[in-house]
Amino acid sequence: MAVTDNEELVKRIARLAKQNQELEGHIKELGKLNERLTRENEKIRALYEKISPSGIKDTVERDWREKSLKFNMATVLFADIHGFSKLAADIDSTGVMDELDEILYEYDAIVNRYKIEKIKTIGDTFMCAGGIPVKNITNPVDVVMAAMEMSNYLESYEHGKRGDANKIWDLRTGIHTGPVTAAVTGKKKISYDIKGDTVNTASRVESVSEKGTILISVMTYELVKEFFDCEYFCKLPVKYKDDLLIYKVKGLKPEYSVEGKGILPNEAFRIKFGLIQFTDIQELILDKLEKDLPGHLFYHNVKHTVDVVTEVELIGWAEGCSDEEILLLKTAGLFHDAGHTVAYDDHEYHGTQIAREILPGYNYSPVQIDRICALIMSTKLPPKPANLLEAIMCDSDLDYLGRSDFIPVSNTLFEELKAQNKMNSLNEWNKLQVRFISGHQYFTKTARSLREVNKKLQIERIQSLITE
User: Fold this and answer.
1) For the domain 271-463, what is the CATH superfamily, name and number?
2) What is the reported pTM?
3) 31 CB contacts (<8 Å, ≥6 apart)?
4) Cα(43)–Cα(234) distance, rounded to whole angstroms?
5) Helix (H, G, I), strand (E, B) or coil at 132
6) Superfamily for 60-265?
7) Sign of the C-alpha dihedral, residues 229, 231, 233, 235?
């Protein structure tokens, strides 16, 4: 009996050992799966961080515990609203606090208009940062523009309340650009607490500022000096580093301000700003193309879009286009094949719909968007440009016809059509290409001088490949 019991015990132990091994195997598999999911989650987070502030907030809401994000270029502003030291016994302190609340409320509205993130208010000190949570190349200009508007608002507010003789409120502003680390907290309302040398330096710049003065560090100055009239202010000692040069912002440069007064931006400012901001739009759309274009698009891919954007700028400058026309051309080039993320056929129309959805968020006017959409539609074959910009667009889109790499590029288009059962025979494709190139003409003087000779050589090269 005891022997039988021992045998049963051994069998049970063996079964348990086997089950334990199986569980260990499952645990290892789950561990690998968890690592893979973690990596995918980080990729998704990084993508949202690039293209959408709402994307970041949605991601954070799913996991609301404190996170840390790194921003390589943020512009931090400290605005110190001075006024309490001037209070007299006959002034209602409650009324003064109401005034401060009113001023801070307007400052919130100003930074929102410039897509700047308010970090916090500490008493009468207002802190915000550009380039957070959505990274962008224009944040130094955005923050300086917001600082000017905040200063002008406070001056107008005081004048309306008390005239010029009995001012209470003064504003001292310090701005610095550099890397920051942001702790992301909150479940329903997301907030960012930024830390690092950049924050400390911005605070120190503010501390040496004078009333009514906007001071910026040399790092910010180098990024905004094309737009703003600045003058050297002082050197700020920095521990363990060289002295930091500080500049005073006097206003917009006359050529970029309404009536040359240095206060309100004019159309020239908006165009120049748009050319810089284009880098952010380009990153957004190229990321979208990388992610959403079908795998069988061997020709209409990211490389082709970059080629067209480059070519419209080259031909545009050569043809004497203005800065605004260059901006419109580059934007149209960027969006002209974005419609392929929706459908192959009528992709030009779908591209215009994507442009109309995205561009208002980057301050393109309705008139500019209409012109961009017309440029996109002009690339629909056969090309029939109605003006110089459409001619530049068409020539840039078919620039490869006169390039030395025409045949390999042409073959990628054949493979793309073949994958969709739109073309089967390479020999028939070559015949079609000969007919198309023979009937094609470049419309701009620049494209004709650069590509027409090579285009004739291409016909001879393709004809040599055709078999009867």
Assistant:
1) Hypothetical protein af1432 (1.10.3210.10)
2) 0.80
3) none
4) 44
5) coil
6) Nucleotide cyclase, GGDEF domain (3.30.70.1230)
7) positive
